[in-house]
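Most newcomers find our protein records easier to grasp once they have seen one. Nothing more is needed to start thinking about how sequence determines fold. Here is such a record, shown just as it appears in the course material:
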Amino acid sequence: MAPKTHRLKPEADIASRAEFEAVLDSIATGQIERDALVLDRDNELLNIREEFDPKINALNERMNALILRAERYALANRESLFGKLKSAASALTTYGFRLGNPTLKLLNRRWTWDGVIAELKQQIGGRRFIVTKESVDKDAMKTQLNEDQLNAVGCRTVQDETFFVEPKRDDPQDQRLLGNGKAVV
């Protein structure tokens, strides 16, 4: 279960520019520390995956090959293994055949889905079997309609402004913070 996130309340209002800049510096330092921890975590996960993935993949390939062998045998000996049943059991497994979910496929190569739509319309009055999807092209509306035209169709353009704090870095790949021309960690 994911941990609950709580909206933090500010401890107190900032009283001066110096205090404001100190808060910004704390944010930047925290971001750098967080980025370093995320990088360490991701490297650890990568190392673990590199260690275990080949073993897991090899086992998957081996099991898939064995399943194919067992399936061939089960198909050839279906009556003696199952009788009228769909499944049976061994000492360590339950095995058998399962029906998948029903799917529609074209009858033969002569048919296409466009042909099916045409026949549904003609023979069955099949509009109830045909899905038509409509949606608003918001990107086109933003670029091609002016504000009055947008208002006429019940829309308006909104562009929110959000506050941001980003640490200055001497190199985007570097995890160090720049402060007064000196590298700070």
User: Anything to note?
Assistant: Confidence is low (pLDDT under 50) at residues 176-185.
